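Human: Respectfully, please carefully check these tokens:
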Amino acid sequence: MSERDQSVGAERIYDAEGANLASIKARLSTITYLLDRYGVLLLVVGMAAVSFFLEPEVFLTWRNVSNIFRQISFNAVLALGVFLVIVTAGIDLSVGSTLALAMMTAAVLARDGYPWPLVILAPIITGGLVGTVNGLGLTWLHLPHPFIMTLGTLNIARGLTNLISGGVPISGLPEPVRWLGAGNLRLANIDFPVSFAVVLICYILVSLFLTYTRTGRHIYAIGGNPQAARVSGINVDRTLVLVYTMCGMLAGLSGLLLAGRTNSGFPNAGVGQELDAISAVIIGGASFFGGRGTVLGVFAGALVIGLMRNILNLRNVPVFWQQVLIGVVIIVVVALDVLRRRGSSSLR
């Protein structure tokens, strides 16, 4: 065989290998895209299937389903606020304490005889104030990471919660507040939890905000590359203050729903709740690196945690083992996110 023939044969082999490699990359890219877009929904379906298999006579009863909806409501609202922060590549550790402060604010106002509209609005305003402090502290003080600022407000809000309550629970909330947290809407002869209707409204509004407003698009841009966002003319500091304020307001609403559900405010409410909210966001497909995630994914993440807790409760699994399992799920999901990013980089 001549040198020319050998050269032509080598080129054909090289072209074939290149085509095979391109085909493999295309397939991997498609799989990555499908997992990114539908992976958490498949996880929800899988969790529901496992739950039905383990408890077929109980799981699909409307009583159990509505109980799941009611149980996940306050965490789903809390996770929605945390999601906005994480999209900007930030974090808010204070949402659990903000929930408690808002909850106790409602209980104290109710105890002192204030009208129910104020009892409903005050927790949301209180949460918004805490969020604004977080945003202003982060932008004005130029702290290296929101972890530091929100860790501080975590302790401040928890301390204020104990100060205004005297460290003791306060029960007895107005009927409209109890209706929001524990009431039902009668739809087609089915009792639908009011708190879950509030969740759906919040998720629809935030989804519309992120999709169809300029500020919503700016939030994703900041998470993708804050320096590039500044250069392109986005007011990063103002947007961050808005995001943390919204997160605080949603934490306040979450506290209001929990207060209505329990008909009380208690100082130790929300302890560790920020971890459940962050878990729902990460399980739902958002990334700690920012710039990525969907409202639907967050809802699915909150539902996954709710389904997990529900089936573990039905199987009488101790709460401590539930915490262990959720922790393992978080580690696995974050590890998969890191692998996904590495895989995406290698496919470019």
